[in-house]
Design goal:
Number of helices: 11
Structural class: alpha+beta
Distance between the termini: 76 Å
Strand content: 5-15%
Number of strands: 10
Order of helices and strands: HHHHHHHHHEEEEEEHEEHEE
Protein name: Mechanosensitive ion channel protein
Domain Mechanosensitive ion channel MscS C-terminal: 290-370
Mean pLDDT: 79
Membrane topology: Multi-pass membrane protein
Keywords: Cell membrane, Membrane, Transmembrane, Transmembrane helix
Largest sheet: 5 strands, antiparallel
Radius of gyration: 39 Å
Domain Mechanosensitive ion channel transmembrane helices 2/3: 175-216
Strand order of the largest sheet: 4-3-2-1-5
Helix content: 55-70%
């Protein structure tokens, strides 16, 4: 009842406006049959109020139904309810126009059936309406399917999350489907209006050929990007390093550019044609590699024991253990140089988890070594060797051979 009163509260002035308009026409004397004009105006008022009331009631019903559908039903039902609501409003509008014409002595339906021009116009409009309906229906189905594939599961525990490849390809596929449907709908609509589309298609082909020859870099970007996406070289959310020096997390892909956000928060847009090599650091697993240098007087067995103890504490950590994919592999003595003995080890981790594991490992190993009297880290600061003075020679300061910089070694299987 309250909803009906609210609807009528927005329509009360319409009959007054129409009555004033008819009275003005009668005073001016434009209409020949004042009673007929008054009657038509009265019917028009009733029709207008009824149409608006029906449309508002339908909108209220579909709105409440849509709210229930969102909670208890699928996205397909929600989209189809919206489509049905739009179709019903179109039908109401067409019926209103036809009945309004009949009230004032003009019937659109009779015009469409009785004359050749009317039949041609009605056939063209019917075909165009059918084309729009089919295109709209296809878009609703395909767009809903893509959105459902991209949507993470909410209520189902343990349900499979959409993969990064799906998140990468489906938005591009959605845009491609939209463009294809719009182009096909436009071509078929022009054909139903009697426009010869063959010259337009030929002209579009020539223009496309000219663009292809004139914009070879653009074509190269598009084709390279297509193969990168198909081969799953990178996906949204991956941390990649490009041969051009750019590095960061993949935030988005278009048909010709790659968008990266680096560690400082800056966004880089790189055309696919400029990408020659990609280093993807976010695939399946990674290695947290440790290269630790100790002095020559260090007890190597004790040092290895401390490294294993550090690895065990990492595996027992409630936050870090989920980053691990296996036990600590201790390789032992990797090499010896002027500064000391180098021991190496590594953890196999999930992609991106190697950084947290490496930081925690270094911190805990440092504490253990500081409390161990027989294990000492090597110091790699510059040293000088003083040779004793000989007769007839000056004292010389002979620097030792430059100690090599210890770089992280490649992962070992």
């Amino acid at each position: 009842m309250q909803e009906s009163l609210r609807i009528f509260s927005g329509l009360w002035y319409w009959p007054i406006v129409l009555m004033v308009l008819v009275s003005a026409i009668n005073l001016i004397g434009i209409g020949e049959d004042n009673q007929k004009a008054l009657r038509c105006a009265l019917f028009t008022t009733v029709l207008l109020i009824g149409t608006v009331f029906l449309s508002t009631v339908l909108q209220h019903l579909f709105r409440s139904r849509k709210a229930e559908t969102i909670k208890h039903s699928s996205a397909y039902k929600e989209r189809f309810l919206s489509l049905l609501h739009a179709l019903l409003r179109i039908v109401i509008a067409i019926a209103f126009i036809d009945i309004l014409g009949r009230i004032w002595g003009v019937s659109l339906l009779d015009f469409a059936q009785s004359s050749t021009v009317g039949r041609a116009i009605s056939n063209a409009l019917s075909s165009i309406g059918l084309i729009f309906l089919v295109t709209w229906l296809l878009w609703v189905v395909l767009d809903t399917a893509i959105q459902e594939a991209l949507k993470p599961p909410v209520s189902k525990r343990g349900a499979r999350q959409p993969s990064t490849r799906v998140k990468t390809i489906l938005p591009l596929l959605r845009n491609a489907i939209k463009i294809i449907l719009v182009v096909i709908c436009a071509i078929t609509t022009m054909a139903n209006l009697g426009i010869n589309v063959a010259p337009l298609l030929a002209g579009a082909g020539v223009v496309g050929l000219a663009i292809g020859f004139g914009s070879q870099q653009l074509v190269q970007d598009v084709i390279t990007g297509l193969f990168i996406i198909i081969e799953d070289t990178l996906s949204i959310g991956d941390w990649v390093v490009l041969d051009s020096g750019h590095a960061g997390t993949v935030e988005g892909l278009t048909i010709r550019t790659l968008r990266l956000r680096d560690g400082k928060g800056f966004v880089h847009s790189v055309p696919f044609g400029q990408i020659k090599a990609v280093t993807n650091q976010s695939r399946q697993f990674a290695f947290a590699f440790f290269s630790v240098q100790f002095t020559y007087d260090t007890d190597v067995e004790k040092a290895i024991e401390l490294i294993r103890e550090t690895g065990d504490s990492i595996r027992e950590d409630p936050f870090l253990k989920y980053n691990l994919q296996g036990p600590l592999d201790v390789f032992g003595v990797d090499k010896m140089d002027l500064n000391g003995v180098v021991l190496t080890a590594q953890f196999r981790t999930v992609s991106g988890g190697q950084y947290a594991v490496s930081r925690a490992f270094n911190q805990r190993l440092k504490k253990l070594v500081d409390n161990s009297p027989s294990v000492h880290f090597a110091q790699t600061y510059p040293q000088q060797v003083l040779l004793p003075q000989r007769q007839g020679e000056l004292v010389q300061e002979t620097p030792p051979e430059s100690s090599p910089v210890v770089l992280p070694q490649p992962s070992r299987t």
